[in-house]
Input
Amino acid sequence: MNLPVIYEDADVLVVDKPAGAVVFPEGSTTENTLIDHLIAEHPELKSAGLAPRYGVVHRLDKDTSGILLVAKNTESLIFLQKQFKNRRVEKKYTALVAGAIKEDSGVITAPIGRSPKDPRKQKVYGPEQVSPPSARDAITEYQVLQRFAEYTLLEVTIKTGRKHQIRAHLAFIHHPVSGDKLYGFKDSPTPDGLPRQFLHASYIKIQLPSGTIKALHSDLPEDLKQIINNLEQYDNES
Output
């Protein structure tokens, strides 16, 4: 597994997660995970947190690429997770979605809870629906970066960190993430050659245990860059 290191100090290891990698074992997962690979290279990570997650500060879905924070000790793990809990972390993603979003920006504010019909999915509750007590508030902001004939490229900022938040929220407004097999619609277009969901964790700004406030970036991977290069541009005059 190729895991480029974006940043490292005595407390934190930040890696550029490839798509297709499971971060840590959950449920019936038996494959070699990202944390298994990191522990093989950095045995000291076993002293951070509890198995099987160890020092993983936040999760990324299997087919989402980009910035992942791993704490090297339990004190750092607690420090960083507290910032996530208190919403002091700025996280941005790049997403290609199906369809044309007319507005240049928008905010999705709708609670998310486990789907009663499909345990693999999360359900978004609109204003006209009564959400169960287990549903949690979720806020997703987006800004249009580029428009194409059948797709829109977005920069997405999440104010909360719910499971599948971006994927579920964008599907809720009828613009699912391109290539998303779980939340995409049957008639959603998919760019030729896209083998996974087009979602990349591109930016994070957080205070480190050392006291330094660090802004970290991850460029769009080559597979996603190629998809963008092959898309038909949006014609403003049509």
Observations:
- Residues 74-85 form the longest helix (12 residues).
- The mean pLDDT is 94.
